[in-house]
Amino acid sequence: MAFWGELGDRIVGAPSILAADFANLGDEVRRAQMGGAELVHFDAMDNHFVPNLTIGPVVAASLVAATELPVDAHLMVDNPDNLIAPFIEAGVASISVQPEAVTHLHRILEVIRNGGCEAGVALNPTTPPEFIEYTLPYLDYILVMSVNPGFGGQSFIPEMADKVRRLKEMTDLPIQVDGGITAETAPIMVEAGAQVLVAGSAVYKGDPETEMGKIIEAGRAAR
Ligand code: DX5
Ligand code: ZN
Question: Is the pTM of this model over 0.85?
Fold first, then answer.
């Protein structure tokens, strides 16, 4: 299974479980899946790279077993090197790292791919597209953070649409956007070239099936 490699030009919704009920993750994902979600966004945070602490490979393994959707791990941690093998072992489909937190980015991307996962980088709002120019051949996707990583429920940073546009001038790699994505902001990012819409609070603030469906529909209508 290669989610990113088989994405084509489709627009896809991905619930961020950061905003879900952690005691019922399987059900929370199923409800978003009923609304059309095709990927699960899994946020790992370490209280170092970001001032928040969440979940790791053990929970990822349980979630992989509980859903038929591919699980995409977004590692907001310093020195993620030690966590790559455990996440691969957990069965996730893809792993993105924050290049701001990695010393040897080329090496870690190769480790992710050699482990059978697809590899991504997640860019902080102020990290320029050029920063990853020489990593493009080693990537399967790019995640553009449209808030500062660390917390759900923050406001969308509008300049990030321009970053998506500039990245699309550099590469054909699929772009995922994460942070403040709603039925209102999704169209802005799709128009700029984004294809995978990650949404946490906008999905889980209400009925996940309905809310996920609205975001996907708004995104697809913007094409
Ligand atoms: C933020 C995380 C996001 C977060 C998005 O650091 O990477 O995945 O869950 O939350 P919303 O959609 O509420 O902005
Ligand atoms: Zn995320």
Answer: yes
Question: Within 35-159, where are the H helices?
Answer: 57-66, 81-90, 105-114
Q: Does domain 14-221 have CATH number 3.20.20.70?
A: yes
Encode pLDDT of 85-133 as tens digits.
999 999 999 999 999 999 999 999 999 999 999 999 999 999 999 999 9
How far does the centroid of ligand 2 lie from the alpha carbon of residue 169, in Å?
24
Active-site position among 46, 72, 140, 178: 178
Q: From the CB of 152, is ligand 1 less than 6 Å away?
A: yes
Classify residue 103 by burial, with Cβ atoms within 10 Å: 0-12, 13-18, 19+.
Answer: exposed
Nearest CA-CA partner of 43 in 67, 20, 75: 75
